[in-house]
TrEMBL record:
PROSITE patterns: FE2OG_OXY. It comes from Flavobacterium kayseriense. This is Alpha-ketoglutarate-dependent dioxygenase AlkB. It comes from the Bacteria. Residues 104-201 form the Fe2OG dioxygenase domain. Keywords: Dioxygenase, Oxidoreductase.
């Protein structure tokens, strides 16, 4: 099933079952989205991501950064990151997203995709540090990219195009029953910054 329209009502669940995904569309103006994109490209402490696959450490072209309320540790793909302190612009955007989604977040993982050649494989955000069934708000800045979900049992696929300045929220049992990915696209030549605001357990 492909859902490419960006005019979906905010209360419409994109998933047919076993989770909740809400697409809010653009939540800031184009001017604001351009400002945040350019600011994050220049000021975020980007580093190449690392992952351990079949025992081998891989350095990705994609770059990442991890920010939060305090120096949280976050481990995924067998690598651990320590959160950096919020920048003023991240806090501004965090407030906008919290007001729009009605959720609160204490950290943010950022990904920089330099072009459509870079993507993300099928995975779910089920790390033990994350609040179970908590909301994850995905903010897209820059190039429009297709985002896909695949049910772990039925293999049903749901896809959606994420617009510049838009927000998509994954919550409830989504991470338990669904995988998601950002497929590569050779037609996309512009960069995309993705911010995933999330909640880390304090205990």
């Amino acid at each position: 099933m492909d859902l490419f329209s960006t005019a979906d009502p905010e209360n419409t669940n994109l998933l047919p079952k076993d989770g909740t995904v809400l697409y809010y569309g653009p939540v800031v103006s184009i001017a604001q989205a351009n400002y945040y994109l350019n600011t994050f490209l220049e000021t975020i402490e980007w580093k190449n991501d690392e992952a351990v696959i079949f025992g081998k450490r891989i350095i990705t072209k994609r770059k990442v950064a991890w920010y939060g309320d305090t120096t949280y540790s976050y481990t995924y793909s067998k690598t651990t990151k320590e959160a950096l302190p919020w920048t003023p612009e991240l806090l501004q955007l965090k407030k906008i997203i919290e007001e729009k989604t009605g959720e609160t977040y204490n950290s943010c993982l950022l990904n920089l995709y330099h072009s459509g050649d870079e993507g993300m494989g099928w995975h779910s955000d089920g790390e033990k540090e994350l609040k179970k069934n908590g909301a994850i708000a995905s903010v897209s800045l820059g190039a429009e990219r297709k985002f896909a979900f695949k049910h772990k049992e039925t293999k049903e696929v749901v896809s959606h195009v994420l617009a510049h300045g838009s927000v998509l929220v994954m919550k409830d049992e989504t991470q338990t029953y669904w995988l998601h990915r950002l497929p590569p696209s050779t037609r996309v030549q512009k960069p995309r910054v993705n911010l995933t605001f999330r909640t880390i357990n304090l205990k």
